[in-house]
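Researcher: Please generate the 3D structure of the following complex. Treat every line as part of one assembly.
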Amino acid sequence: MSEEKTLSISDLVVEYHTDHGVVHAVNGVSLGLEARETLGLVGETGAGKTTIAMSILKILPTPPAKIVSGEVKFEGQDIMKMDSHDLRKVRGNKISMIFQDPMTALNPVFTIGEQIAEGIHLHQNLKKGDAEIKAMEMLEMVGIRRERFTDYPHQFSGGMKQRAIIAIALACNPKLLLADEPTTALDVTIQAQVLDLIGELKERLNTAMILITHDLGVVAKSCDKVAIIYAGQIFEYGTKFQVYAETRHPYTQGLFDSLPSINKEVPRLKPIPGLMPNPMDLPAGCPFHPRCPRAMAECSERAINPTDLGDGHWVRCINPIN
Amino acid sequence: MSTPLLEVKELSKYFETPYGLLHAVDHVNFKIDRGKTLGVVGESGCGKTTLGRTILHLLDSTRGKIFFEGEDITHVNRKRLKELRAQMQIIFQDPYSSLNPRMTISETIGEPLRLVKNLKGEELSREVRRLMDVVGLAQRFINTYPHELDGGRRQRIGIARALALNPKFIVCDEPVSALDVSIQAQVINLLLDLQDEWGLTYIFITHDLSVVRYLSDEICVMYLGQVVEKCDADELFRNPLHSYTQALLSAIPSPDIFDKTERVLLQGELASPVNPKPGCRFYPRCRNGCEDCLKPLELVEVSPGHHVACHRYSF
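Model: Done. Output below.
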């Protein structure tokens, strides 16, 4: 066993250069992921979650995107320095991605079977026929009958499309799976099925996973580590237990307070006041300070560095909750 | 007893398809009192949106009756319908397709004010700005087009537009599903405040049971066009009787990491609502199914106010 982490991101900065200005999407994100670990990346719209995932695969459209600095090391190799030939060997093979919207992630003019077999044929040096046999096995593994192999995406329901996408993503037995809101577009009963399926297959195939979501409930069910992200910065990082039971960042707490609960009566929700900052014009200092109930003068004056709380739990706040 | 603000009796909406009749809404009954909220919960395709639209006459009902403040509005002429529509509004589900891409925010929110209230110029602009404030849209967006905004902000435009005419009744069709949690909580609180202030009555359509518990007085659970369980909101969460309700409740991932409740995973997916067989429509996915389930069934009251459509509870 090598000591190398499956993935390590250090100081990633990504901007989008648009006609209206520069969007500061990711502002110095550092993350590590051990083999077989599941990290929940939690944040709201525009926090930079998807941009991080796309940077890992280097599939950001450039321009307008620009990776300003940072390293993304996958099994010791810097993805940022790879050429397109090497990247192709990684994408869909060692690292694969499940996209958010199953309705648009599949190509409508190819059959489901062809789309699963494509990656297998390209990456595993299998002949078309053999790749198709493997693809059928994948289809069965995600709980779809073999006969549906020649169906087109429009003949599938949303839940089945997402299963097919999971089959595509896992077909080459990747080391790292990036799941970008894999169940957001699905109904709760189907969501429960799909999450169980992802968890089970991940276990069986020894895959590490980054689960991008805005749903703290989904994270509680399926992740080991949690990173809370806001305005392109990680605000709090730790094990699920640390972040959920020993919450230190006011933003994390704000997210929990905003959730209506099915288990208990809450007289009134406590939303976080205000709106997400405009990523073209982020507030100085901590980007959360205008909405933060614990903000001090210092918060707006300087950039806030992470504070280590021990046991791998850290928080980017100078006045954390005790 | 006072007249309920809205009452529907045996309301049905069928669509003709090349394969047969699609039973989108099938014999639905309920009443909503003024200032109350009825939550309608179910998965995609269960007919909850069709129900909301049929009540508002955006779709013609196939069968059944709709009463608004005691008046039968199932078949009304256009003039009366126009008057009614000022009092009955809808917040649509999809903020991406419910806004005209060629209209700026101020035009979209201002349109009902201009057409119905005849507001103009400074007065119109002031009212638009006030509504933007109410729904938490920053003034800098006043002249932007929908494509420039994210889903959350677009949905706020939809809410502002629905509120513009001070309606009595609003069908909220998944209004917070597209919003982030911190913003979702703001909008939910906003909807509650508006209800308190103006005595609004809501039908709140959603697939999110935690939201519906928080907002509703009474809840209808729908499955394939039919109401399978109907009762007081707290009662539904304390004592869900229908197997489908139980499965729905257990499928929600709880943000409580210490919650170790065993999950009931539903097998399979929704069946087709085209030409459904008599009997329980949930039967193919039900854990407690038996032969009786293939017989026709009705919603029965098992305890005061708690209705359920399941053979295990019919006597």
